[in-house]
Amino acid sequence: MERVPTGIDGLDELIEGGFPRRRMILVSGATGTGKTIFSAQFIYKGAVDYDEPGIFVTLDERPDLIREDMLQFGWDFKKEEEKDMIRIIDASIAKAGLPSEEVYHMPESGFDLDRLLVEIIKAAKEMGAKRVVVDSLPALGFRYENENEIRKAILKMSYVLMKSGLTSIITSEIPEGSKQFSKYGVEEFVADGVIVLSYLGGGGPTVRTLHIRKMRGTAHSPYIHPIEITRERGMVVYPIDEI
Which CATH architecture has domain 3-242? Predict the structure, then answer.
């Protein structure tokens, strides 16, 4: 099976060298666990270290804030955008019917999944993209009335992205301490892989953790691994025997 290096130090060793190519991976976690950093690192490192153009679709945060936040790790998204190695598609304010100043964006007439997928496919063909991130699914869910419709939407997204040759990350928010792995309880069944980011704390310092709950076609680590977010390397995953 062909593998896609994640660009996240310490993770590829736990999943046989990387994500299976052309598969969809769900990254879920509570607020502040590092989902956007994880996703941005996947896109940025893919472009810079592995010569794989990538698309970052933001449904929540404004693109200018993403660019600003990622500079703290030395990730210059703007520079890679100018090379057309990265494209950010702004769908963050279309939901409110407001216009975007971004080159690539959803129209202010409103959010529509089919139109978004057309924009992703178009961008992927133009720039030869290999990776895509959709951050985050709960912002997509407001368009649907029940879990069955949400599941159909995610299935459609998964199929279209796979047929376009893209390896994708979708993010989903879960409440702190929740036993669910996603917002709606259906995303993990559709996705080919599930990575859960969490906080662990017992009265002392809080520790960020990563758990590979599922990765189809992959012998993966079953353990909960400590992670650290550093300015020099971004997110780093540590083996259990180092702790």
Answer: 3-Layer(aba) Sandwich (3.40)
